[in-house]
Structure formats: structure tokens, C-alpha cells
TrEMBL record:
Signal peptide: none annotated. Gene3D superfamilies: 1.25.40.370, Helical domain of apoptotic protease-activating factors (1.10.8.430), Winged helix-like DNA-binding domain superfamily/Winged helix DNA-binding domain (1.10.10.10), YVTN repeat-like/Quinoprotein amine dehydrogenase (2.130.10.10). It comes from Lamprohiza splendidula. InterPro entries: APAF1_C (IPR041452), Apaf_helical (IPR042197), P-loop_NTPase (IPR027417), WD40/YVTN_repeat-like_dom_sf (IPR015943), WD40_repeat_dom_sf (IPR036322), WD40_rpt (IPR001680), WH-like_DNA-bd_sf (IPR036388), WHD_APAF1 (IPR048975). WD repeats lie at residues 427-458. This is Death-associated APAF1-related killer. Residues 233-364 form the APAF-1 helical domain.
Length: 458
């Protein structure tokens, strides 16, 4: 009866998806004559001579995606517009389900796709803008995959709804959210989800661990599926989980390469507005700076100003004091591991909010030694530190006091805007270390000397 149904005109061009098949009997039972996409860990269950095998290692490579598109259109890879095909691969982030579904949608338009770029560009535009005419088909496919999960695993997967797009999720993050005893349990659950093509993973050499990701479309589906009320509850669950592991003290949050960067976002989405008082907690600010640097702290101060100050003028003045303190002392706190934010705070003016907060914290730690070393007010100054990735060999101010020319040992000369710690331009031409920079008196250029004796006028 099933085979007869798929032979009718209504279903002849249907795509049948068999997910995580383990038995040959299943593929034989569903061999009904229509196009079939099978995901499996057992290659021997595939029957028939017209089968196309694609081995998936986490996600499709660019080459695998292009080959799948070529096979869907029954043509050679050389006949495809590779630029557009690769662009679709990148937008899908190698997700096998999405790429396979798009491949099946391309098939009926073979002539248009091989003779013109218009339809390719149409799909690229829709995927880029996330204005999907394909939304129904894509969400239906995602829904089928998720609903086939066992109830326990499905609930775990719903927890991914709290993440923003394009974020790397470490196993430690999910261990906290899922409240699992060890990382092996996390990897086991992640393996199950990856086998269903619901997440992707790769090994991060810098972090020395696997990191996981969820495609934007899957996140969009989860957010739409759960709705606003449930999403708020999911964010509250995350906040509660991190409170548990930090003993209700956000200054003791684990450095899991995630939470210090996104704590403000989750507090806002969880509607935990009273918790924004942590941005006046020196220990939390110090821990956040140590974990991810000053730029993110300053960004949070601006991004969540309304929640931090509650439009109160006194709190707004207090926030401005914290901003100036982080600008002045944050770089040293981040750069030098032995620096302490309480000691830095004790170096501020005695009437300042920062000093009073630091003094209060110092008194709570009688076994720690802190020194009260205030500089005279007339000698208090702010420093600007440029975070350069290369070795510096020369530098000078320009006629604009906010811009600095920096000569590098590589021979490049960089123009920096110091207030924003932003590189404006690179003057390339020297091949040896820059040893001298001099501005022209007419303000229209400068002179540079490199170690090999060459002189250039810019």
C-alpha cells in the first residue's frame, strides 16, 4: 500500500527521509521507488545499484557539498557555478540535513541552474537574509529529526535554544547546563545529537577540546517552537545552573570560554534585571577582565546601561566611575596574572566609589595583605595601551593627538587611533625593521627609516 501511494502523481517526486537506520529490513521495507535520503552508521544496509554514498565526518566539506549538488542535478562538478555552490555550503555551515534538503529542492530546476546563476543567487539571498521561502520545508525537516529523539534527549536539545548564532559551545558549558557529573557524559549526549545531524563539532587546538555549534536555522526553529515564555524559562534555567556551580557568587563563575562573555545577554533574556547589580561587584568585574579582557567589560557597560543604572542618576554616575576605572586599570589586570582588582581599587581617590568598594572587600579578607597607596590627585592619569600582535621597533605621534604611527620589526608601519584601540591603515613597503619615524613639517606626510638603511617618504 505504501509503495502504491508513492507511485501516485502526488507523491512521485517526494523525498523520503530515513534517519539513523540500523537494520537492512528497514531500507527494504521503505524501498518504494521515490528519492530517499538515509542517514546511518551501517553502510551495508543500503540496497540497490543507484545509491550515492556520502561519508559524513561531523559536517559536509565544501567538496562533498558540491559533489552532492552535482549528483542532484545529474551533472559533472565542472558544470556548476562553484562560487555560488560554495557560498550555499558556507551559509549552511556544512549541515548535512540542510544541504541534502537544498540539493533535493534544486533537482527539478536542472536546466535553469546549469544555464543561469539567477536561481543560485536567489537561494543565496534567502539564506543570507534568513527570509526563507523554504522555511516550511526546512522547519518540517528539522521538526521530524527532533521529534524522533527520545524524550530525555529532546529536552536536552531544547536547552540549545538559549544560545546566540555562531557561538562555540564547549563541553564544560553543557556540563553546567545539563548538570552532568563529568565531561564523558556530555560527549556521549553530543555524539547522539551529532549522529542525528542536529549539531556539528570540531576540535579546537587552542582550547584542546571539541567545541560544538548549532546552525542558525536550528536555533530559529527552537526559538519558534518553544515560544517567548518557555525561552525566558530556559534562560532562567541557565542562570540557575551557573549560580549552582559558582555557589551563588558570579565572581566565581567557571572560565568555560563562554559564560563571562554572555552573562549579560542571558540575564536580560531571563528578565533577571536585579542581577545586573553584579556590574558594580569589583570581584566579578575583576574575574571578567581576567577571563576575556577589558573591551568586553566596557561593551557590557554600554550595552546593558539601562538595566545596570535603572535610569537612576546616582547609579549612572557610579557606572561612569567604573567605566573610567576599567579604562585606566583594566589592561594591567588582564595582562599581568598577579594583579588584583581590590589592590587596584585601593589606589583610587579615597572619596571615590571604587575605593570604598575595594576597602570593604579588603576588610572581608583579613588573611590577605593590601596596601593603601593613593597617588596625589594632580598625578592621577589615564593610560592608553595599544594591543599589538607584532614586535614594535619605533613609534611617534601624528599631528592628530589621537593617532599614532607605529613601526614594526616586520617593516610595516601602522596608523592607530589610540582612543578606540583601532588600526586605521597599514603602510607597507619596507622589508626590514623600522628604526625611525619623523613627521613632515607641512603635515602632509612622514619619513621612515628601516634597519637595512632604506628611507621612504609617505
Amino acid at each position: 500500500a505504501l509503495k502504491n501511494m508513492f507511485l501516485t502523481s502526488s507523491y512521485r517526486e517526494a523525498l523520503l527521509i530515513l534517519d539513523n537506520v540500523a537494520l537492512r529490513q528497514a531500507t527494504e521495507a521503505f524501498d518504494v521507488g521515490c528519492k530517499t535520503l538515509i542517514t546511518t552508521q551501517v553502510k551495508d544496509i543500503i540496497i540497490g545499484n543507484n545509491s550515492i554514498y556520502v561519508e559524513v565526518k561531523g559536517g559536509f566539506t565544501q567538496e562533498e557539498t558540491v559533489q552532492l549538488f552535482a549528483k542532484s542535478l545529474r551533472t559533472d562538478v565542472s558544470n556548476l557555478p562553484l562560487l555560488q555552490a560554495v557560498k550555499i555550503h558556507n551559509l549552511c555551515k556544512g549541515e548535512p540535513i540542510l544541504i541534502s534538503l537544498i540539493g533535493s529542492l534544486l533537482e527539478p530546476y536542472k536546466e535553469d541552474l546549469l544555464n543561469s546563476h539567477n536561481l543560485w543567487d536567489y537561494y543565496i539571498k534567502k539564506l543570507t537574509s534568513k527570509d526563507y521561502n523554504l522555511k516550511t520545508q526546512l522547519f518540517d525537516t528539522i521538526s521530524i529529526c527532533i521529534e524522533r529523539l527520545c524524550p530525555e534527549l529532546r529536552e536536552l536539545y531544547y536547552n540549545f535554544s538559549v544560545f546566540v548564532e555562531d557561538v562555540n559551545i564547549t563541553p564544560q558549558v553543557m556540563q553546567t547546563i545539563w548538570n552532568l557529573d563529568n565531561l564523558y557524559d556530555v560527549h556521549e549526549q553530543m555524539r547522539k545529537l551529532q549522529n542525528k545531524s542536529l549539531i556539528v563539532s570540531y576540535y579546537n587546538q587552542e582550547l584542546k577540546t571539541f567545541v560544538y555549534g548549532v546552525h542558525d536555522l536550528f536555533l530559529a526553529y527552537l526559538k519558534e517552537k518553544l515560544g517567548c515564555v518557555t525561552l525566558v524559562a530556559q534562560h532562567k534555567t541557565l542562570i540557575s545552573a551557573y549560580k549552582r556551580v559558582s555557589n551563588n557568587n558570579f565572581a566565581n563563575l567557571p572560565n568555560d570560554n563562554y559564560i563571562y562573555q554572555y552573562i549579560g545577554y542571558h540575564l536580560k533574556e531571563a528578565q533577571c534585571y536585579n542581577e545586573f547589580s553584579i556590574y558594580f561587584d569589583l570581584k566579578f568585574i575583576g574575574a571578567k577582565i581576567k577571563a576575556i579582557g577589558t573591551a568586553d567589560v566596557l561593551r557590557d557597560f554600554q550595552l546593558y546601561k539601562t538595566y545596570i543604572t535603572r535610569n537612576d542618576n546616582d547609579l549612572l554616575n557610579k557606572l561612569n566611575e567604573y567605566i573610567n576605572f576599567v579604562k585606566a586599570r583594566g589592561h594591567d589586570l588582564y595582562k599581568y596574572c598577579d594583579t588584583d582588582i581590590i589592590q587596584s581599587g585601593l589606589g583610587q581617590e579615597k572619596e571615590s566609589t571604587i575605593y570604598k568598594a575595594a576597602l570593604s572587600l579588603a576588610k572581608e579578607e583579613p588573611k590577605s595583605l593590601y596596601l593603601q597607596l593613593q597617588a596625589p590627585q594632580e598625578n592621577v592619569y589615564f593610560t592608553h595601551t595599544l594591543d599589538l600582535q607584532q614586535d614594535v621597533s619605533a613609534a611617534c605621534f601624528t599631528f592628530d593627538v589621537d593617532q599614532v604611527l607605529v613601526g614594526m620589526k616586520s617593516g610595516d608601519i601602522n596608523l592607530w587611533e589610540q582612543s578606540r584601540n583601532h588600526k586605521l591603515y597599514v603602510f607597507a613597503g619596507h622589508t626590514d625593521s623600522i628604526i625611525y619615524l619623523q613627521l613632515c613639517p607641512d603635515r602632509n606626510g612622514f619619513l621612515s627609516v628601516s634597519e637595512d638603511g632604506s628611507i621612504k617618504i609617505w
